[in-house]
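Entry 12.
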Amino acid sequence: MNAKIPTDIKLHKQSAILKIFYTDKSSYTLSAEFLRVHSPSAEVRGHGSGQEILQTGKREVLILQVEIVGNYAIKLTFDDGHNSGYYSWSYLEELCKHNDTLWQDYLDKLQANRASRDPLPSDAQVINIQPLSQG
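Predicted 3D structure (tokens):
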């Protein structure tokens, strides 16, 4: 399958969206949060099936920069410091076409893990509590 190559990609920094246009006049709008939680990087996808790492607290993430990588991908830099992983044309097309399903799957995973899209307050302190041993 040959991936469609975008004819134009526009970053709207204030609204935190990336708009992608194709020659067939189709266009797609993807949020920064959606792109961040579906990053193709090993940090998010792991190194194999079942090794995915659920991304939490990304509701307010912004895209700082979009770079073209050769003739096959874009690289996004997010304001949370994440900038690894190339969004190939085929992966970008997959994200565009399956946005609604992928988003719902993500929301379901958050709910199942009792996790949140909201970032922790900057003054939050996280304490891991180990179960007390019975004895």
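Annotation: The chain has four helices and six strands. The longest helix spans residues 99-112.
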